[in-house]
Amino acid sequence: MRYIFAHYNEVLPTDLRQQHIIDYLVFIKKEHGVGRDKCRMVAAACSFFFKHILPTSYVIPSDFYPRKEFKLPDILTVEQMAQLLDSTQNIKHKAILALLYGTGLRLSELRYLEMKHLDRANRQLKVVSGKGAKDRFTILPNNILELLGNYYRLYKPKRYLFEGQTPNIPMNDRSIQHAIRQAMLFAGFEKYKFSAHSLRHSFATHLLDYGTDIHTIKELLGHAKIETTMIYLHLTKQKREKLVSPLDMIYNGK
After folding, report:
1. Tens digit of pLDDT for each residue in 182-204?
2. C-beta of residue 209 within 8 angstroms of C-beta of residue 232
3. What's the CATH superfamily of 78-240?
4. Residues taking part in catalysis
5. pLDDT tens digits for range 132-166
6. In what order do the strands lie in the sheet with 124-127?
7. How far apart are CA 42 and CA 210, in angstroms?
8. How many angstroms separate the CA atoms of 226 and 215, rounded?
9. Cβ(24)–Cβ(7) under 8 Å?
10. Is pLDDT above 90 for 71?
11. Beta-carbon count within 10 A of 7 CB
12. Would you kindly state where each structural domain of the chain is located, as residue ranges?
């Protein structure tokens, strides 16, 4: 509140109105680049102040809270994914990329993936204590087995599939993120904001494109609610390609 009063230094607190607060929230978001969480903190402070400290009928506290933003995740096309794997020469980095994309794992799940969790015979991978402390199974691609075999013979991990400098200790998440950034750079994708999670998003979206049902994808990703998985319906290429604009219908009908 002190910052708001300083911003409106020529206006008494008793003279502040609803629009002042809204304009201030717009100001800090535009000029200082603050996120939604920071805006919510400011909104909560204003709400408390004008409801309990200086009650006024000119301000409706509930109107301050910013709406949750809906942003579609960044995904790679199938062609970009192939280019990324082909351009990655480091076998450990390639194995990380292939597993994230080929299984839909989260980065934290990849870190703690143990050798014993890979079931080659049944082509499945067990995720132990994933998000929400839940175990689940996801698919293990056939085409990754040779890559993982070559990787194992070279690095010989003891317990975790991807270990750091110390045996039996999982690879640091920052090291994994750095490996992914370097791979994106070598592939020429530095202008995009692709990350480890982009590979997971791409896994789900491409499965939809290939005809996998949404409930199966939900189970593979380990989502608690189907609503979380439904976001990929916005991204599926197959669905977009079947859409026909009303304008095209008019001219195509002639």
Report:
1. 999 999 998 888 999 999 999 99
2. no
3. Intergrase catalytic core (1.10.443.10)
4. 106, 131, 197, 200, 223, 232
5. 678 999 999 999 999 999 999 999 999 999 999 89
6. 118-119, 124-127, 136-139
7. 45
8. 7
9. yes
10. no
11. 13
12. 2-63, 78-240
